[in-house]
Amino acid sequence: MPPALPVHEPAHEPVPAAAAAPSGASAEGAAPAGPSSGPAPVNGSAAGPASGSVELGPGLERRLYRQMKKTCEDYELLAPGDRILVAVSGGKDSYCLLRLLGALVKRVPFEASVVAVHLDQKQPGYDGKPLADWLAQSGFEYEILSEDTYSVVVEHVEQGGTYCSLCSRLRRGVLYGAAERLGCNKIALGHHREDALETFLMNLFYGGKLQSMPPKYLTDDGRFEVIRPLIQCDEPSIAALAKQLEFPILPCNLCGSQPGLKRDRMAELLTTLEAENPHVKSVMMAALANVCPTHLLDRDVQRAWAERDPEIPAKASLAAGKPRATGRQLPVL
Q1: pTM above 0.90, yes or no
Q2: pLDDT per residue as tens digits for the range 21-32
């Protein structure tokens, strides 16, 4: 394994988030510095008492932190100079992501930062005040945007269709615009282990392809790297942590209002399998990182495998063979 990076604690006092905000972001209560494309923030950046520092609790929180940290090491999700937009939906996953990733960014031995961005999509009954209050006290730099994507989704999705795909694309477009304006090079999403497995099964059963959620990918236009630091963390632990820390959860009135979704069916299948084998989800996640290219029917994959770099071992995965020479270990908290 590559040598661990030394633990680095900044010698200087943390800079208040409002002072660190780029010129495109406005401080709370102030007007933006200039015109910008996309929806205007209804709140700007603010610093809470701890200026974004996070004191991790024992047990569950530290276990999730260690798993997320290992994912960041194995898949090289963090690098010097990163400015990461953390998409905060108001659900349990994104709260946990912001808290844990914020803690890790404060402890890596290089400069990196996070900014939380929440999008008010104008859903009926939406009340974002609990989230806004939580962000204001969290100490993280943040911004709350407002754009009516709800009406667009409801208008364009035919009766019986699913909202998720169009809603996700519209939301992603707004986040990309915010990331560019805020000077971010990465966007962090809160997908977890169950999301990855359900996506894999949906693609297998309904899409005719072997595809899951990668820990990171480059956007089609090449502007941003999207990362999923929680992709190996299990949903029950994330839910337990969210309950323990009493995050103010905001309900979703789009996807959450639709019964009989294929993703729900995949979740039910996994629950059934888990009743027979309590470790089935861990086994399936291990399989996603332990692919045998020579034993698949995709000719492009077989050709790429045959032409691989000689340094790649006979069976390539993060779980087998030689460790990647470029791997980076982050400091243990």
Answers
A1: no
A2: 333 333 333 333
